[in-house]
Task: structure prediction
Amino acid sequence: MNSRIGHWFELASWLLICLVTLSTLNLVSLQEGWRLGLLWGTLFLLWVVSKLARKPTAGLYLVAILGGIGSVFLLRLDPSYFVNQLNGWLVGSLLFILALFIDWEKVRYTWFFGFLSLGLTLWTLILGYEVQGAKAWISIGPFSFQPIEVTKVLLTLFLVNFLYQNRLEISKKSGIELVKVLAPALLLFFIIFGLLVLQRDLGPGLILFMVLCTLMFYIVKRVSLLILAIGLALGGGAAAALLFPHFKMRILAWLWPWDNAYDSGFQILQGMFALNNGGIFGVGLGEGLGTQIPAIHTDYLFALIGEEMGFLGASVVLMSFFLLVCWSLTIAKRLKNIRGQWIAIGISLVWVYQVFFVVGGIIRLVPFSGMTLPFVSYGSSSLIANMLMIGIITSLGKVH
Result:
């Protein structure tokens, strides 16, 4: 255990060095260090609680690395970003502890998760307000949040539980009979997906659709379903491009950014310049483009990391996500309970697809989705939901 505690001190020392560097560059005051210490103390407390509960802790190391890197760059951009993000860490930590002591292998509130997802989506559509073209935010007094972040977790749990409860019929049926078995879940899912389309919040909807398709293919193992899913995705994307100018603009900016260099393509081009400028080792902390990239603290923080820490720093971020998913899937593999396995796989898929669409959008592999990078980018709603998910995975694991 002493060597593992040593890892936390090593990570804390790295953060202290970064904080001193930022202070030297007059980008942040050393007085902000106590908040960084509070974050590190909170994560260390979660580690202690997990150890006492005899749960695996490797996931928390990776979250600490990702959160540490994200915190340094939020401090570098604007200390107020980190101050607000710290609230998300504290609330998310409470949800982590709550999730840690729930037996997720026995949770059976299938339709509760489903209808709660529907209720949150309807609430956002009716009472939400628009930010950057998407009506995805709810305001309660001085607090604002994105219900879709929690909906991603709830709908994943709904899909997993529904597929688990109907697994025997799903394995025996085919054709129209299989569609009848899946119809209740598919109907609820596509109603929620349709509401997200009306909100023009297509990124999370796409993630949920990919999770649904992957889970169904994993369980049913039929190529015809995969082909149908790809067809629906392409058809839905084409329809969205025709019906919604906001989505069409993103497609055009992705395909021809130079033709829209001073408009919709500006963010994409600046992100590419930043990554190219970083090279292998980066230009140094505080020396990058920073605020020249629109919405850099939420959508494009990975580009700034790549510029100031170079290819090596960006690789650390991507490798941490890769190891986080591997850790989650390893826990799933060791579980004897099928429901628990599928929950771990479903949450892993949420992380995989979100990182793919965020990083893929920045490097122009796919159209940019406007989502946050889990545990790294600014966004308390996203952070709280991801801490809940890491708590669920940790709860499913067992120390051998």
Observations:
- The radius of gyration is 21 Å.
- The first strand starts at residue 129 and ends at 131.
- Residues 2-396 form one domain.
- Residues 118 and 191 are 8 Å apart (CA to CA).
